[in-house]
Amino acid sequence: MRHNPLINWLAQLLLGLGLAAISLQVSLIFGRGWWEVAAGAAVVGVAGLAIAARAEWIERRRRLVEKSRTALSLPTQWSVKLDKRLPGGWVAPLAVIRDDGMRFVVDIHAFKTATWSSTPGKGSTGPRLVNAKDKPLWPDPVAALAKGALAAGAAPVLWLPKAAESGTFRHPDTNLVVVTGSPRDLKLALQSARRVTANATSPRDTEPQAA
């Protein structure tokens, strides 16, 4: 039986906040004479807040994905599947097959800005996306999308519907396309994509190693 996402979100939110509230009460009661109890309660409280924060982040992402997909209008002759599970287990919010057979997998995130970094990250030799302050995007939207698209034989597309500016760009070392802007911007990007980009390639740091 599948649970309603709203129920899951509310349950985890209440659990996290409840743990934090109980821990605060325990700390106030035993804080002066039983520091071990107070310390343990503080740890539980932090864990509770972490649970609540994670639940809220997941719910906000779910709402963004639902709202963005609802606003998107693609040609009726295209095949569009929602929450498509790809080989390897990754779930693509959107999987699209154009009428000419061109395949896309689209991930959706709430980042306001994104650009390719001019320098590789620590322990990485491949391209990475960063924000306006040159800080890596978190969670990293590139690796899972590139691997999922490669496994599905599709072109990977990262859509940022809340970005401040509209645009489309691709790093020369990877076929991952980043689309910033409205549903119309994504539609135009998918329509104009050349069929040659269907053979998705992972960033250098995600390529399989030779045995």
The run of helices and strands is HHEEEEEHEEEH
Shape verdict: elongated
The count of DSSP E runs of length 2 or more, i.e. the number of strands, is: 8
Structural class: alpha/beta
Beta percentage is 15-25%
Poorly predicted ranges (pLDDT <50, ≥5 residues)? 196-211
Q: End-to-end distance, in Å?
A: 41 Å
| Strand line-up of the largest beta sheet | 1-2-3-6-8-7
User: Could you give a short account of the major beta sheet?
Assistant: 6 strands, mixed
Number of helices: 4
Percent helix, as a range, is: 25-40%
Integer count of domains: 2
Work out the radius of gyration.
21 Å
Mean pLDDT: 79
Task: Summarize this structure as a short list of keywords or feature phrases.
two-stranded antiparallel sheet, 6-stranded mixed beta sheet, 8 strands, alpha/beta, elongated, 4 helices, 2 domains, 211 residues, 40% helix
Protein architecture, described:
- 27% of the residues are buried.
- The protein has two domains: 66 residues; 133 residues, no CATH class.
- It is of the alpha/beta class.
- The C terminus is likely disordered.
- The longest helix is centred in the N-terminal third of the chain and has 37 residues.
- A hairpin with a 5-residue loop joins strand 2 and strand 3.
- The radius of gyration is 21 Å and the shape is elongated.
- Helix 1 runs antiparallel to helix 2.
- It has four helices and eight strands, in the order ααβββββαβββα.
- Strands 1-2-3-6-8-7 form a six-stranded mixed β-sheet. Strands 4-5 form a two-stranded antiparallel sheet.
- Helices cover 40% and strands 18% of the residues.
